[in-house]
């Protein structure tokens, strides 16, 4: 890990502007709390049973979060790509062992906050409480959408919702991962994709 040049912060600055307004001096101070991590594809950032020590903003790459059910089946909770945050929020906040896995699917460039650096950042710039509150709200809203999707939507409707949320992902990740996210077989997903192209 190492501190990165300021040019790399533009993406997270744009994210910040959607949540709050900071002065140039505050932005410069904000930058000092993040560290960069370059992670190859197919690497674990977190395994179930570990305590999550980061909240990460994705500058580049794709990450999946998932858990393993009692039958040993992988259930994908979400994907995180450019300008998304990724973490096990409960484990990070409480510093207790988590239940999910977080794994890179592509080479990734991340900006990381530790619990200690986040605490110092919020003490120095209290206005950022709003940004992190909105981040948590968006995360909870995404989980709620996932739950409602599985309860109330057909497989075809879930696939349409996936394409709306992640329009670029079908060209970046294997089909079996999309199927796992949707809770269907790869073969059924192939039929859905074919019928969508025909229609």
CATH topology of the largest domain: Jelly Rolls
Low-confidence stretches: 1-5
What percentage of the residues does DSSP assign to strands (E)? 15-25%
H/E series, N to C?
A: HHEEEEEEHEEHHHHH
**CATH architect. name of the largest domain:** Sandwich
> How many β strands by DSSP?
8
The structure class reads alpha+beta
**Total helical elements:** 8
Overall radius of gyration: 18 Å
Q: Specify the biggest β-sheet.
A: 4 strands, antiparallel
First and last CA, distance: 48 Å
Please bin the fraction of helical residues.
Answer: 40-55%
- Which CATH class of the largest domain applies here? Mainly Beta
Number of domains: 2
CATH superfamily membership of the largest domain: Jelly Rolls
The strands making up the biggest β-sheet line up spatially as 1-8-3-6
Average predicted confidence as pLDDT:
88
* Shape estimate: globular
Please explain how this structure is put together.
The chain is an alpha+beta fold. It has two domains: 6-152, Jelly Rolls (Sandwich), CATH 2.60.120; 154-199. 45% of the residues lie in helices and 20% in strands. Strands 1-8-3-6 form a four-stranded antiparallel sheet. A four-stranded antiparallel sheet has the order 2-7-4-5. Strand 4 and strand 5 (74-80) form a beta hairpin. Helix 7 packs across helix 8 (186-198). The longest helix has 25 residues, at 128-152. It starts with 9 loop residues before the first helix and ends with a helix. The model is unreliable at 1-5 (pLDDT under 50).
């Amino acid at each position: 890990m190492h501190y990165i040049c300021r040019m790399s912060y533009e993406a997270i600055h744009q994210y910040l502007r959607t949540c709050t307004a900071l002065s140039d001096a505050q932005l410069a101070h904000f930058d000092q709390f993040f560290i960069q991590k370059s992670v190859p594809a197919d690497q674990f950032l977190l395994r179930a049973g570990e305590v999550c020590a980061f909240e990460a903003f994705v500058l580049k790459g794709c990450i999946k979060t998932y858990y393993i059910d009692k039958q040993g089946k992988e259930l994908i909770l979400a994907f995180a790509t450019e300008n998304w945050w990724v973490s096990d929020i409960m484990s990070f906040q409480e510093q207790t062992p988590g239940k999910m896995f977080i794994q890179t699917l592509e080479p990734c460039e991340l900006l990381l906050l530790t619990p200690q650096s986040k605490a110092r950042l919020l003490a120095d710039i209290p206005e950022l409480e709003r940004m992190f509150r909105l981040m948590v709200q968006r995360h909870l809203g995404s989980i709620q959408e996932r739950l409602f999707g599985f309860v109330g939507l057909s497989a075809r409707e879930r696939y349409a919702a996936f394409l709306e949320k992640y329009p670029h992902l079908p060209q970046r990740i294997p089909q079996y991962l999309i199927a796992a996210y949707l809770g269907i077989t790869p073969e059924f997903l192939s039929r859905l994709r074919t019928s969508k192209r025909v229609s």
